[in-house]
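Re: that chain you flagged

S.,

Sorry for the slow reply, it's been a week of failed gels. I finally had a moment to sit down with the sequence you sent. For the record, here it is as I used it:
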Amino acid sequence: MSKRDYYEVLGVDREADAATVKKAYRKLAVKFHPDKNPGDSQAEDKFKEVTEAYEVLHDTGKRSQYDQFGHAGAGQAGGFGQGAGYGGAAGGYDFDLSDALRAFMRDFGGGGFSDVFGEGGGGGRSRRGRDLQVKLKLSLEEIAAGAERTIKLRKQVACSRCKGSGSKGGGAPHTCEQCNGAGQVRRVQRTLLGQFMNVVPCPACHGEGSVISDPCSDCRGSGNMRGEETLKVKVPAGVATGNYITLKGQGDVGERGAPAGDVYVVIEEAEHELFERHGDDLVLQVPVSVIDLALGTKVQIPTVDGRVSLKIPAGTQSHRIFRLRGKGVVHLHGRGRGDQLVRVVAWTPEKLGAAELKRLEELREAARRDLPEPGRLSHD
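Prediction finished late last night. Pasting the structure tokens below so you have them in one place:
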């Protein structure tokens, strides 16, 4: 089943700015939120659909890829998530309900519908770990073949003393007495217009719903501390600058057992000294002497797979392009490879002796007799 256009899902036009996209999403997410529609599977599907659309359209990079390539481009921009078959290339994002709720909570706060509007409890929780981003610079050869790289990352790791619990003795936190575990308290504010009820994070537990009576001295009760971790990244062949790979759960650890964030490995392609990349095709300029162009020759051409022989027919004009099929970059989300385009360029010698100059004068006279009339230049 094909997916609907993301702009249509949110009910915005293609020129809508980020604020309009966010406003449209919030309205629809509130309407279809599972807390407001308990047991309604259709509302749940709608909630996931609008969140998936929002996750693409509110992000500049993902939105640009989607505008160019549709759902396949969105899947590409969204990364090639480790353990997920490199991220749903043919159908964009595969959102489950937990992903959608987490995205909603990230941008609008709270764990549920009532939390967003200050309508009640919802229970506090420790904070999820931060998402991290790291750039990975690759050579064209690594991109063409695929690569496995190791990266070292400075991040928040579980405290070694309390094992991430935040408690000095490793015990579990107890329910906050001030908010009874809700993480929120109600406050009455008196104004000239009357009394207003506000729901604010509990000051005793900072909105978590629980407190630690004897916090760990190393991490001060947070359950995490600064550390370093080594990660392995498998990069599929055919990636390009701006693509990224998502390492789920490899970001900063959360506070006191809360879920860890993710790591986004952003691909950056190093400039190559020989090749220009155009999509999955490679372009190479090869200097060839005028004599070889006139008489024909064979030249050894570099490719990402090694050197190959290219036959240049007699009478070849400068800047003619030859196509070496299947010698380009692997298609990221499909079979086959791009091509390598070889542009031969006439090379004029700069230092010649008297004997060479004399022979070239003789050749020039012969060549002039073969010149076509102005306006009749062949474009073959």
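What I noticed first: The chain has three domains: 1-117, 125-173+212-270, 276-369.

Talk soon,
D.
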